[in-house]
Amino acid sequence: MRRELGVMVACMALASCKRSRPLGPDATLTFTKDGATVRALPLSELAKAIPPETVSGFDPYHRKPKRFRALPLKRVLEAGFPGESLADKEFVLRAKDGYAVYFRGELAVTEGGYVAFEDLDVPSWEPIGPQRADPSPFYVVWSKPEQAELEAYPRPWQLVKIEMVRFDVAYPHTSPGSAASTAALAGYALFRDRCFKCHAINREGGRVGPDLAVPKNVLEYRPVAQVRAYVKDPLSFRYGNMPPHPDLTEGQLDALVAYLEAMKDRKYDPGK
């Protein structure tokens, strides 16, 4: 949500670069399942097991074509979770700044996803955005033109951990409960897929944006109409990191509001 890489339009094997150009700093990617570490694989080990490739295309954050040295995301997951049937699992890709992206298994193993570990256009990583963020150590990119839609194909950077989870078990206090209305359950699904990256509910979720439930639910200090308008076009209120969501329908906004309303009565604050 806060920082998607954009369309990657070509990829090819990088055998010649692999021979001639050494790997960068030996960063480690940690893999956890149900909260326990399964593996912690250094880049050098991953690159020995998985042939690196070049992924190149237009990067809207740098506003120019970029080339990255990368490993197929599916192969990375297979290395981190050996023997697992990945397509029916759920994953959270977590960045070192707290950004957390939920991935369904079928998306995570889709061809075209890559974990980039080196910027081939500059000696070190080129910073991203007005905050000059360093994307290292790992940066998720997509290679196919049809994978350009940012909400459907998230592109987290500063990746340090991949968690295999059952969302309702890992983040139980984000749920409105099985007895919630159909609208609230639909809003919960939207929160999980689109808001969880940056926002938490009851201290569970992303840490880039504010918690939407505690200590006060956002609907307890903002009018519903203002929340709806802000979600659609936050930059019309203030300049910040939250992107606009012009594609959300009135029905989807109704569902998000219903979810937030339901969470008023389900507060949980482990800090108190």
Describe the structure.
The chain is of the alpha+beta class. The protein has two domains: 10-166, Oxidoreductase, molybdopterin-binding domain (Sulfite Oxidase, Chain A, domain 2, Alpha-Beta Complex); 171-263, Cytochrome Bc1 Complex, Chain D, domain 2 (Orthogonal Bundle), CATH 1.10.760.10. Helices cover 24% and strands 24% of the residues. The protein has eight helices and twelve strands. The protein has helices spanning 15-20, 43-49, 73-80, 105-108, 167-170, 182-195, 224-232, 250-263; strands at 10-13, 28-33, 36-42, 53-59, 64-72, 90-95, 100-104, 113-119, 139-142, 159-165, 200-201, 204-205. The strands form three sheets. A five-stranded antiparallel beta sheet has the order 1-4-5-8-9. Strand 2 (28-33) and strand 3 form a beta hairpin. Helix 6 (182-195) packs across helix 8. The protein is globular. The two termini are 30 Å apart. Mean pLDDT is 86; it is low at 1-21.
Task: Quickly describe the structure.
This protein is α+β, with helices and mostly antiparallel strands and 272 residues long.
